[in-house]
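Table S2 (text version). Query chain:
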Amino acid sequence: MSTIDHKTILRYVEKHIGEFHNQRLDSLSRLKLTTVLKKKNPYLFRAKAFESAGEIVKGITDAFLSSNEETIFGDWLERLAIFVNGKSFGGWKSGIEGIDLEFDSENIRYIVSIKSGPNWGNSSQVKKMKASFVSAKKALRTSNSKMQIIAINGCCYGKDKNPDKGDYFKYCGQQFWEFISGNDNLFCEIIEPLGFEARERNDKFLELYVPRLNLFTKEFIDEYCFSNGMIDWKKLVKFNSGK
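Corresponding structure-token output:
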């Protein structure tokens, strides 16, 4: 193992953080009102007594963008984790389905499935991950039947007080970043460079976001409001849920 230099991480983040911001912009530029209307629950907005078109449009658009950004940034953090581990342990992006990272340490092969946070999936998704671990172990042992393999569910943030899950370990937050790097303070060190040019890039995002929101609101009023400005809830529900 070799300790990764802080400046190496800084250079990587500053070089690649633009990928996240560019994907945010690209996602927003391609977004359509019909997409977000189909994804969100119209009954919830009715139950919360939303009567303003602008309020509804902003609510569903922000919720959609937030969920999308979580996915985009989760993928970005996965690439950072693989980079850090590669520099520290010589790890690599796995080619096995369901496995994100592989590396060797003290005669043990670690297979890692990387997620954003600890509450990333339901029971079916966890079951699928465990099945991927089983399949990966079988595949790796075809070339070396005596290989010792340990499966890890690594989460980029959060905590889990019971990491031993029986057939795999779940490392979250500080524990995960220390596990892949050998540095118990890495989880703090990576937060600072993530703000590189963040204000400038967010201003650019808002330049696109505000007019897009206005256009969505106009489209919503034209399509789902009566002539007196009241929302036509039945038409909205039919678009969202009708046969």
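Notes on Table S2: The chain has one domain: 6-241. The CA atoms of residues 110 and 150 lie 5 Å apart.
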